[in-house]
Design goal:
alpha+beta, Ubiquitin-like (UB roll), Nucleotidyltransferase, domain 5, 2 domains, 5-stranded mixed beta sheet, 7 helices, globular, binds FE2/S2 (inorganic) cluster
């Protein structure tokens, strides 16, 4: 074993870690997942950390992607540097990824929850996890966190490739740990015991639900992107390794297609537009990021989607979303009847969706 000291603005921590492991595999286990948009292929450079001690020699990717001065100062790619003895790593201030809106206006609806004591609602986004905890009367707590599967690649298609390539169980364990941590945070905030959660809904896009349940995702990996598993059924918490009683129901909402998932169906339910007779629009806002790298083929000012489900990270320097420029979305009714109008709540939060999406759905 080796000693790993992690320095952050919040203070230093000391751990015993296994020799020979990559920093990129150790840091997530210690609660410090680095940004890894390229999934550890040494191409994006976003996993860089300051590290000194007994480490492997800089890899060809690091020699190519770092300047001689950066290398001399101890900058390393976490996905390339192996711990061979005692090491000290310095990490920058925390990520802004968890800054996601988890509150929103809700439509009035009859409450008929699937739980008796505590119910949890979780949205597995490609980039971010969000969750809320309810009792029979009210919302008790909200929480969000980066999707820990980011170490397998920032985009859906990278993770699909890793799952098809033999890491299906590793991806499932990774997201299950992330959801479990979020549930424990919710209960800590609400001063409740996680063992009292007796019903749960976990939504997400089609790929995220496949990865959570360790379902064969290969049909989503290539045209015509057929989907055999659409969910819309209940699993047990034990089957998903969640920290609640093993036999409680966990409902995964039904997906429409390979890339229109349960997150969309729950939003449709919550917004109430299915019940109306007017033409309506449901808009799904996703994080965008300005790519300032300026490399060939990458417009410095062009906003790009963080998750490109079909294309993958087209820019080798793809970076995580910054705090979204769209922080307070609003709705404006069309002035003219000839113009399509937009109906729905100011922000159809996922939580509102979850609360209406019970197994009867
Ligand atoms: S270079 Fe390390 S994750 Fe991309």
């Amino acid at each position: 074993m080796a000693q790993l000291i992690i320095q952050t603005p919040a203070g230093d921590s000391v751990y015993s870690v296994r020799e020979g492991a990559l920093l990129s595999s150790l840091l997530p286990e210690l609660g410090h997942p680095p940004d890894m948009p390229c999934g550890g292929q040494g191409r994006c450079g976003k996993c860089r950390v300051w590290a000194q001690g007994v480490l492997s020699q800089p890899s060809p990717s690091e020699v190519k992607g770092l300047t001689p001065r950066e290398l001399a100062e101890g900058i390393r790619f976490a996905c390339c540097a192996r711990v061979l003895g005692d090491v000290c790593v310095r990490l920058p201030a925390g990520s802004t990824l968890s800054q996601i809106c988890v509150q929103g206006a809700e439509q009035a609806f009859a409450v008929d929850p699937m739980f008796s004591q505590l119910g949890a609602a979780v949205d597995i986004g490609t980039t971010t996890l969000a969750a809320q905890l309810y009792d029979r009367q009210q919302l008790l707590a909200s929480a969000s966190a980066p999707n820990p599967q980011g170490v397998f690649g920032a985009d859906v298609i990278s993770r699909v490739g890793r799952s098809v390539g033999g890491e299906r169980q590793a991806l499932a364990q990774c997201i299950r740990r992330g959801v479990s941590t979020l549930l424990e945070e919710l209960c800590r905030k609400a001063e409740k015991d996680v063992s009292h959660i007796d019903g749960m809904v976990i939504t997400g896009n089609t790929a995220m639900l496949h990865l959570l349940t360790a379902t064969d995702i290969s049909p989503l990996a290539a045209a015509p992107f057929a989907v055999k598993e659409r969910f819309g059924r209940t699993f047990s918490a034990g089957k998903l390794d969640l920290p609640c009683p093993a036999d409680i129901p966990v409902y995964l909402p039904r997906c429409m297609s390979a890339f229109v998932g349960g997150d969309i169906t729950t939003a449709l339910m919550a917004s109430g537009i299915c019940r109306g007779t007017d033409t309506a629009l449901l808009a799904d806002f996703v994080p965008t990021v300005k790519s300032p790298c300026g490399i060939r083929g990458c417009s410095p000012a062009a906003p790009r989607r963080q998750a490109l489900p079909l294309k993958g990270p087209t820019c080798p320097r793809a970076c995580r979303a910054l705090p979204a420029p769209l922080t307070t979305p609003g709705w404006k009714r069309a002035a003219s009847p000839s113009t399509p109008s937009v109906t729905g709540p100011p922000w159809a939060s996922a939580a509102a969706a979850w609360r209406t999406c019970w197994p009867a759905f």
